[in-house]
Specification:
Elements (H helix, E strand, L loop, with lengths): L7 H9 L4 H17 L6 E4 L19 E4 L12 H7 L5 E4 L8 H19 L4 E6 L1 H11 L8 E6 L15 H5 L5 H4 L11 E6 L8 H4 L7 E5 L2 H4 L4 H24 L1
Parallel strand pairs: 2-3, 2-4, 4-5, 5-6, 6-7
Antiparallel strand pairs: 1-7
Helix pairs in contact: 1-4, 4-5
């Protein structure tokens, strides 16, 4: 299924999923309070699958490719407070935080709205490349947009952080269609293609063995080849991990370097 992201009905559906300002403020306040109350543990890299390649140069200038960040179920845009400064310092300044209401719509509908946002971001940037980063349920939104809606880019990278690729045991207690789709062995998850079948997409899956919400086996899709395990912090604390930010940046830099190399050799 492919959607026409420039059609008026597509833009209207996307606008209908944007939460109100009051909802965003309330979610951000609650999320930051919960993060402060969550015990912190030292992070330790268990399986460093994404070390920065030796000799890989830092970008000579800021990357034009948009970096679109998709938060999780009931997570506000403030969940990216720790990662955004690292992205900007490393030259990835064209960042877009995608807002949506996770209680009102299912993952496919949210993914359609994301496709509209990404299309607008790439047109504004004047570049076909895009980097997609999804936290928790946001990773499933990104995955659906890429695999089912044909969202593409050149290059296109996908990073999922603590995403329930194989379901979340606590999802049965959630409210709304998206929560039901995150249940272990849900029809939605069973129908998703394997991530190896997404063409030129470069995947990066990050999880933590101390995450009590999304098991490591689910976050890494059963030890996916391109996966990283970070110890400590849990489901919320992983967003504050310097190692997590470093892995994300190395992944984006590698994709940019490969694209630049391909262009120079063309």
């Amino acid at each position: 299924m492919r959607i026409n992201v420039t059609a008026p009905e597509g833009r209207a559906r996307a606008a209908a999923l944007v939460p109100t300002e009051a909802t965003l403020v309330a979610l951000t306040t609650a999320f930051r309070t919960l993060r402060k109350a969550t015990p912190r543990q030292p992070f330790a890299t268990r399986r460093p699958e994404f070390p920065r390649p030796a000799g890989l140069p830092r970008p000579a200038q800021d990357s034009a490719s948009p970096v679109v960040l998709v938060s999780g179920y009931l997570s506000p845009l403030g969940c990216w407070d720790a990662l955004l400064p690292r992205l900007h310092e490393s030259g990835f300044r064209n960042t877009v935080c995608f807002p949506y209401d996770s209680l009102r719509a299912g993952i496919p509908e949210i993914a359609e709205a994301l496709a509209v946002q990404v299309s607008a971001a790439t047109r504004a940037a004047g570049t076909p490349g895009v980097h997609l980063i999804g936290y928790s349920m946001g990773g499933l939104v990104v995955r659906y947009a890429v695999q089912r809606l044909g969202l593409t880019g050149d290059p296109i990278s996908v990073t999922t952080i603590a995403t329930p690729h194989r379901g979340c045991p606590l999802a049965s207690a959630g409210v709304g269609p998206a929560a039901q789709q995150m249940r272990v062995n849900s029809e939605f998850l069973r129908d998703l293609p394997a991530m190896y079948s997404s063409g030129r997409v470069r995947w990066s899956l990050i999880g933590s063995p101390t995450d009590r919400v999304v098991p490591l086996s689910s976050a890494t899709d059963g030890r996916h080849a391109d996966s990283l395990s970070l110890g400590g912090g849990g489901h919320l604390g992983i967003l504050d991990s310097p190692q997590m930010a470093g892995a994300v940046l190395s992944h984006l830099e590698l994709c940019e370097f490969e694209q630049a190399l391909a262009v120079s050799c063309a």
